[in-house]
Amino acid sequence: MLVYICDDDNVQLEELKKYLEKYCLENGRDMDIKAYCSVENMLVDMASEKGHIDIFFLDVELGKYNGIEVAERIRINNKLSEIIFISSYEQYVHDAFRTSPADYIVKPIDVHELARTLDWVCEKKDNNRTVKIISERKELNIPVDEIVYIEGNGRKVNVCLNDKQYVVYDKLDDIEKKIKEVSQLYIRIHKSYLVNYRYIKNIKSDKITLIDGSELSVSRKYKEEVKQFRIKIFGLKDK
C-alpha cells in the first residue's frame, strides 16, 4: 500500500509517519510511506509515480498552498485514492467535503480515531468489492468504487462509470440492495438516482454536484435521507 503524507510542519510530519509505521507493525500491514514537507516535491513525485497511490494524508494549511485545493488537483488522476485531512482548524471541514475525503481529523491527532479510520480504509482496500450485472448478455463484475452513479428508468438501468456506461435490465431498487451489501458509500437522492459519494463535489438540499461538474436532482422524498447521510459521513448538519 502506497501512502503519501504532506505537512509543512516537519515535527508533526515525522510523528504521523512514526504512528503509521507503528500501526503497520501492530496490524501486520505493509505501507510504503513517503513523507513531504514540500507540496512541490510531492506533486513532482506523484506525477512520476508508476504505482497507484492508496492514501494521501494532507494538512489543510500547507504554507502558501491550500490543502483542499491540492486535494482537488490530486483527484484529477487519483479518483480512487483515499484522502485524509489532518488539520488544526475545524472550519475547513465543509470545504473539504467536495474532495470526497475518507476523514477529516483535527489536531492534536487522537490515535484511536486515526486507527479507526485506518482500519476502515484498509478493510476497503482488502475487499475487492464488486457488484454483478448482466449487460448485453454478458455477466460482469463491476468494482463498486468505480461506479459514479446509477440511473433507473423503469426496468432499464444505466450503470455510469467515468469512461463508460452499462445498460442493465433490472430495477434500481434491486441493484441498490446488491451494492449496499458491500458498500455503505452510496446514497439514494431520487427515485431514479443512486450516487457514489466518492464522486460528489457538493451537496445542497435540492441537488448534488459531481466532481465532473454535472448535477443531479435531490427529490423531496429523499431530502431527509441526504441530510442524515451528510451527518453520518462528516457530522455536518444543515444550518
Question: Can you walk through the features of this model?
Answer:
The mean pLDDT is 88. The protein has helices at 10-27, 39-48, 67-77, 93-96, 111-126, 172-180, 223-234, and strands at residues 2-6, 32-36, 55-59, 61-62, 65-66, 82-87, 103-106, 130-135, 138-143, 147-153, 156-161, 165-169, 186-190, 193-196, 200-203, 207-210, 215-217. With 239 residues, it is α/β, with parallel strands linked by helices. The longest helix is centred in the N-terminal third of the chain and has 18 residues, at 10-27. Strand 10 and strand 11 (156-161) form a beta hairpin. It is globular, with a radius of gyration of 19 Å. A five-stranded parallel β-sheet has the order 2-1-3-6-7, with helices on both faces. 33% of the residues lie in helices and 33% in strands.
Question: Summary?
Answer:
The chain is of the alpha/beta class and 239 residues long.
